[in-house]
């Protein structure tokens, strides 16, 4: 594996970092979080028009740039540095690959160019215990079902005029604002039980969406209620959805690992800058040996996570599945960096006015959505056969 950036990758990083520095500073970030959508549509348009970011990893024949998952991970490392709220994760990382892999030719031709151009945003609505379960990040998803009835699942019925969905999903990234929903639903009753994916338009009759209060405001979430909503089946009825979700999960983990590394690196930079100018007992606190040791440990953790993230992004593009382990390493590094950042900033570190608390919430929020770390590692050990190929008890 060659760890050097290509000229194109270096240009992506440099241009994206410059744009985000101008358009996604602390005041702009907080303004975006308070908006109805939870992100700045003008920034999203700039990312799409100037960099082609939504279609970075989509084929050129569908209006994309034609890059690999490695390039998308590199871009997400930069968005992670400033916690940029945008539909990128839900649209380009979670939804577009499923449309590309499972959709019919007509569905691909209709949806992918709009997703690549950023004119259509989308999200994946998965009911059940957690998104991590459906993506096979914390356990095998062979027994996963999108059903659940009153417990919050989604059921699908086939009628003479097409498919109808009913049910509820409580935590959907950008679920309140996305223009297209890709909903996992249960069908077939008990005897022929299976999970299928359905396309639901944002203006569909019977669809009710409500923005939820989330721990991490930079990842806005919504509750999606479906009341006999008309839906279009993604792909064919015989399409195998669970293996596709498991394959997607590893790509998602690789991208999330890069994003977490970017966030950890940035909060470490902020902390080093602060202790270098904050004085106590007549000297800068960064000169105390204990503080140096703390920051050195964080630096080592961040660099180790960056190495794991880079390898995962490269290996995923080669067909290997190591994203979950890299994600565990990156989330642990982010949690460590954010916790030390809050501590070393003192009283101001956990106040709403300072940005360090946003990174701490990102670390905690990502573990709730895609972890926790110990289960990610359990799953990696299980996949590698370290426990004799049996299921790991967690």
UniProtKB/TrEMBL annotation:
Residues 6-118 form the Acyl-CoA dehydrogenase/oxidase N-terminal domain. Signal peptide: none annotated. Residues 255-382 form the Acyl-CoA dehydrogenase/oxidase C-terminal domain. Its cofactor is FAD. The keyword GTP-binding does not apply. SUPFAM superfamilies: Acyl-CoA dehydrogenase C-terminal domain-like, Acyl-CoA dehydrogenase NM domain-like. It comes from the Bacteria. Keywords: FAD, Flavoprotein, Oxidoreductase. InterPro entries: Acyl-CoA_Oxase/DH_mid-dom_sf, AcylCo_DH-like_C, AcylCo_DH/oxidase_C, AcylCoA_DH/ox_N, AcylCoA_DH/ox_N_sf, AcylCoA_DH/oxidase_NM_dom_sf. GO terms for molecular function: acyl-CoA dehydrogenase activity; flavin adenine dinucleotide binding. PANTHER family: ACYL-COA DEHYDROGENASE (PTHR43884), ACYL-COA DEHYDROGENASE FADE28 (PTHR43884:SF20). Belongs to the acyl-CoA dehydrogenase family. This is Acyl-CoA dehydrogenase. It comes from Streptomyces pluripotens. The lineage of its organism: Bacteria, Bacillati, Actinomycetota, Actinomycetes, Kitasatosporales.
């Amino acid at each position: 594996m060659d760890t050097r950036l290509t000229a194109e990758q270096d240009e992506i990083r440099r241009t994206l970092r410059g744009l985000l520095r101008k358009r996604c500073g602390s005041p702009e970030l907080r303004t975006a979080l308070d908006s109805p959508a939870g992100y700045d549509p003008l920034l999203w348009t700039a990312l799409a028009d100037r960099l082609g970011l939504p279609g970075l990893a989509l084929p050129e024949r569908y209006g994309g740039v034609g890059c690999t998952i490695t390039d998308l991970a590199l871009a997400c490392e930069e968005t992670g540095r400033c916690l940029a709220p945008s539909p990128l994760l839900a649209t380009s990382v979670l939804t577009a690959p499923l449309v590309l892999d499972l959709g019919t030719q007509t569905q691909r031709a209709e949806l992918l160019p709009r997703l690549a151009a950023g004119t259509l945003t989308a999200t994946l609505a998965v009911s059940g215990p957690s998104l991590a379960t459906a993506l096979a990040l914390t356990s095998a998803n062979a027994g996963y079902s999108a059903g659940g009835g009153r417990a919050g699942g989604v059921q699908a019925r086939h009628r003479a005029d097409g498919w109808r969905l009913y049910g509820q999903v409580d935590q959907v990234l950008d679920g309140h604002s996305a223009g297209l929903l890709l909903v996992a639903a249960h069908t077939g009753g008990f005897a022929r039980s299976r999970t299928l994916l359905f396309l639901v338009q944002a203006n569909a009759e019977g669809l009710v969406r409500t923005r939820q209060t989330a721990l991490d405001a930079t990842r806005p979430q919504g509750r999606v209620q479906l009341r006999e909503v008309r839906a279009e089946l993604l792909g064919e009825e015989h399409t195998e959805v669970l293996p596709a979700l498991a394959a997607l999960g590893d790509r998602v983990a690789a991208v999330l690992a890069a994003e977490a590394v970017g966030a950890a690196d940035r909060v470490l930079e902020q902390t080093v800058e602060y202790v270098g100018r904050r004085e106590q007992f007549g000297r800068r606190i960064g000169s105390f040996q204990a503080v140096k040791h703390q920051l050195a440990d964080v630096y080592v953790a961040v660099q180790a996570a960056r190495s794991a993230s880079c390898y995962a992004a490269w290996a995923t593009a080669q067909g290997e599945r190591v994203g979950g382990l890299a994600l565990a390493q990156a989330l642990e590094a982010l949690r460590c960096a954010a916790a030390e950042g809050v501590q070393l900033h003192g009283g101001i570190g956990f106040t709403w006015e300072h940005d360090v608390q946003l990174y701490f919430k990102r670390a905690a929020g990502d573990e709730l959505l895609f972890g926790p770390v110990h289960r990610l590692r359990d799953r990696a050990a299980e996949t590698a056969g370290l426990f004799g190929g049996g299921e790991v008890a967690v």
